[in-house]
Amino acid sequence: MVREIKPHGPLTSQAQLAYLEDELAAFIHFGPNTFYDQEWGTGQEDPERFNPAQLDAREWVRVLKETGFKKLILVVKHHDGFVLYPTAHTDYSVKASP
After folding, report:
1. What range(s) does the Glycoside hydrolase family 29 N-terminal domain occupy (predicted)?
2. How many CA atoms within 13 Å lie on the side-chain side of 95?
């Protein structure tokens, strides 16, 4: 006699499965520390030095696609406090950059 085994505990949802099938996601941490050639910013870096005039975001996307990444997550505010968009909450943002 074969007995049906019922699942125990929560089941993985279709959304969770789809997320797992994407496999690779890239996190981009980009801020003033990039222009100081340091891995970790302290929040003391001068925002005027943040000047990504030569930035080619399409190149980032192209390289990630070519290497199999399915998602790109841009960290717009990291632990150093610098914000990649103008905000009323702090002056430590792109609004203080050239």
Report:
1. 46-94
2. 9
Domain count across the chain: 1
Domain that holds residue 57: 23-96
pTM for the predicted model, two decimal places: 0.74
pLDDT (tens digit, 9 = 90+) per residue, 46-67?
A: 999 999 999 999 999 999 999 9
In a domain, 13, yes or no: no
- Distance of alpha carbon 3 from alpha carbon 26, whole angstroms: 44
Q: Check if the beta carbon of residue 84 is closer than 8 Å to that of residue 94.
A: yes
Tell me how far apart the alpha carbons of residues 16 and 24 are, in angstroms, rounded to a whole number.
14
DSSP state of 83: B
What does the alpha-carbon distance between residue 31 and residue 83 come to, in Å, rounded to a whole number?
A: 8
